[in-house]
Amino acid sequence: MNYLEIKKILPKGVNLLAVSKGFKSSDIEYMQSLGQIDFGESKVQEAMQKPVFQIDNNLIWHFIGRIQTNKIRKIVKHFDFIHSVDSYKKLLKISEVAIELQKIPNVFIQVKLAKDPEKAGFSYAELMANWDQIKQIKGIKINGLMTINPKGLNAESNLELFNKCRLIADNLELPDCSMGMSNDWEEAIKAGSTWIRLGSLIFGQRYS
Ligand SMILES: *Cc1c(COP(=O)(O)O)cnc(C)c1O
Prior knowledge:
Layout: H1 3-9, E1 15-19, H2 25-33, E2 38-41, H3 44-48, H4 51-54, E3 60-63, H5 72-78, E4 81-85, H6 88-101, E5 106-110, H7 124-135, E6 141-146, H8 155-171, E7 176-178, H9 185-191, E8 195-198, H10 200-203
Parallel strand pairs: 1-2, 1-8, 2-3, 3-4, 4-5, 5-6, 6-7
The structure holds pyridoxal-5'-phosphate.
């Protein structure tokens, strides 16, 4: 399926984030010409090197990578959505910077629902233990939860983890779940994802 075919079958309420990490400015502009507005990058420096990122063009930028604390200022300044906040400390720092810069970032809290040494994120227990404090953080809008499933799971296991994420979000009265990538987006939609994050499926193979 290509970009336009995927767009056509997306249920109402499911947004497509075009993950442009590893792709060029010209690839992003091509997607823009097809009507895509939301783009995701996982490294601040890589994003800032792309001319399309620097110009005022009504595109909406989402940060989806591992957050280094010393990059938080740049992330808040240049991105409208942050999908990958994996600690309470970083939430506080994002809040502090956001208030200073007078921006209200849309934040997703990254949760880790299966053992995966490659992935960061709040465990369910950590999220619950911190939730009352998290809710009170000023200057940010907590849209929902984000999750990345471990590599190599079958469709059934992917669906199970996505269902778990959706259930936790519902219990916390959070509207959004950022979940689903090129190889598991269909299960994510079944589970109630509101943001699928697609890179290679729509752009093709990455350069880097
Ligand atoms: C790279 C990446 C994606 C997109 O991956 P594809 O498999 O190319 O669709 C989605 N989410 C995150 C957090 C990523 O780092």
